[in-house]
């Protein structure tokens, strides 16, 4: 199980680093390797995974880190609520327009006009989507601020996943927290220059409807090349 699959990329050529292994003298060696041909060195799986988790815990779960995450999540939630408030009226309007159209088409449906049934079906589908969205927005609009304690308890759960004995759990947490790990071998240091792009949280914010990712880079040196 390679925890960083899909997240770890070559700083030399931008291609993926892929998990791989070989057996020598009955011992198995696991590593990640550039899938391009740029000559960037391969990196030991266990070493890089342990380092990445250590950095995540240090940066995201330090007192400072936790405080900043709680703050960010609250801000994003507030922004989302503000946006929901704005969006509710137009969505309601679109739903009632759709309903009027559907009524008209239903009258036509009996008279054998072609294509009407399809239009009705399409409008019904759109209406369903909008109603779901409306429900979501109304729920957010009616809710109060997120409690620190709630965010903290979620964060603690994530932290225990990250430090869990189970590889499946660790992978889930790593994949959720990390946007990217960029690996570049640094010859004079005989070490890798590593950058982790951490994804703090996803959700709406900044007054637009597209999900915003707050992220942050952690840069450090570590790991010797595996061969
Ligand atoms: Zn490469």
Write the layout of secondary structure elements.
Layout: E1 8-10, E2 17-24, E3 27-34, E4 43-44, H1 45-60, H2 63-109, H3 116-142, H4 148-162, H5 167-177, E5 178-186, E6 191-205, E7 208-222
Parallel strand pairs: 1-5
Antiparallel strand pairs: 2-3, 3-4, 5-6, 6-7
The structure holds zinc ion.
- Euclidean distance between termini CA atoms: 21 Å
What is the total domain count? 2
Instruction: Please work out how many helical segments DSSP would assign.
Output: 5
The biggest beta sheet, please?
4 strands, mixed
Strands in their spatial order, largest beta sheet: 1-5-6-7
Small molecules bound in the structure, each named once:
zinc ion
Strand content: 25-35%
Q: Give the SSE order as H and E letters.
A: EEEEHHHHHEEE
- Spans of at least 5 consecutive residues whose pLDDT stays below 50 are 202-212
The coarse silhouette is elongated
Please report the total strand number as a whole number.
Answer: 7
């Amino acid at each position: 199980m390679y925890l960083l699959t899909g997240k770890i990329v070559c700083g030399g050529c931008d291609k993926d680093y892929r998990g791989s292994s070989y057996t020598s003298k009955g011992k198995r060696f696991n590593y990640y390797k550039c899938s391009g041909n740029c000559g960037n060195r391969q990196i030991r799986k266990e070493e890089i995974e342990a380092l990445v988790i250590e950095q995540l815990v240090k940066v995201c779960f330090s007192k400072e880190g936790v405080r900043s995450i709680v703050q960010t999540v609250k801000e994003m939630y507030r922004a989302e609520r503000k946006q929901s408030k704005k969006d509710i009226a137009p969505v309601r309007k679109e739903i009632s327009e759709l309903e009027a159209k559907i009524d008209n088409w239903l009258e036509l449906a009996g008279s054998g006009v072609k294509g009407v049934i399809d239009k009705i079906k399409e409008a019904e589908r759109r209406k369903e989507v909008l109603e779901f969205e409306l429900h979501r927005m109304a729920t957010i609009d009616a809710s109060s601020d997120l409690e620190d304690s709630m965010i903290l308890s979620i964060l603690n759960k994530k932290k225990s996943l990250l430090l869990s004995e189970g590889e499946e759990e660790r992978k889930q947490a790593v994949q959720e927290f990390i946007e990217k790990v960029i690996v570049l071998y640094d010859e004079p240091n005989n070490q890798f220059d590593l950058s982790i792009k951490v994804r703090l949280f996803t959700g709406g914010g900044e007054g637009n409807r597209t999900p915003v990712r707050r992220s942050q880079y952690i840069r450090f040196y570590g790991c010797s090349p595996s061969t």
